[in-house]
Design goal:
This is MerR family transcriptional regulator. It contains 5 helices and 2 strands. By secondary structure, it is an all-alpha fold. It folds into 2 domains: about 80 residues, Multidrug-efflux Transporter Regulator, Chain: A, Domain 2 (Orthogonal Bundle), CATH 1.10.1660; about 45 residues. The termini are far apart.
Length: about 140
């Protein structure tokens, strides 16, 4: 299978497959004309790489888990388990941080709403609303020379 077909099969762009190759994650064979050829094992490996990247792993982190990406190591992999647990702890820290930011933002919204509603209730004479009885031209008149 050539790169365009492989990319369509995996739901990624051909550029992504070239990037995986450039990062040392994937090594498809080459046809006599130099075109990349992706076999079934390459597709399975590329699918695992795609899934790892989609869950937040960088290509460098995926490369560190290379033994876990082949068909031989696709099951339980000791090095991979430690890396997955580390990634999970990073994700948990990010979730905690985002929840704190969300709480802070909600508090700000409540403060703004309270301030704005107080200001609207206290405003008796808005000062900037024009008197409807006075005609206001759309343009400033030109100065006469």
């Amino acid at each position: 299978m050539q790169i365009k077909e492989a990319a369509a099969h995996l739901g990624v762009s051909p550029r992504s497959l070239r990037h995986y190759e450039q990062a040392g994650l994937l090594t498809p064979t080459r046809d006599a004309n130099g075109y990349r050829h992706y076999g079934p094992a390459d597709l399975r490996r590329a699918g695992r790489i795609r899934d790892m990247i989609a869950t937040g792993f960088s290509t460098r982190e995926v490369l560190a888990m290379a033994p876990c990406l082949s068909d031989d190591g696709a099951g339980a992999c000791e090095a991979g388990l430690a890396d997955l647990e580390h990634k999970l702890s990073q994700i948990d820290r990010l979730i905690t941080d985002l929840q704190a930011r969300r709480r802070t933002t909600l508090e700000r919204i409540a403060q703004f709403r309270g301030t704005l509603s107080n200001a609207n209730n206290e405003r008796k004479d808005p000062g900037h609303d024009p008197d409807p009885r006075i005609a206001v031209p759309d343009r400033v008149p030109r100065r006469q020379r």
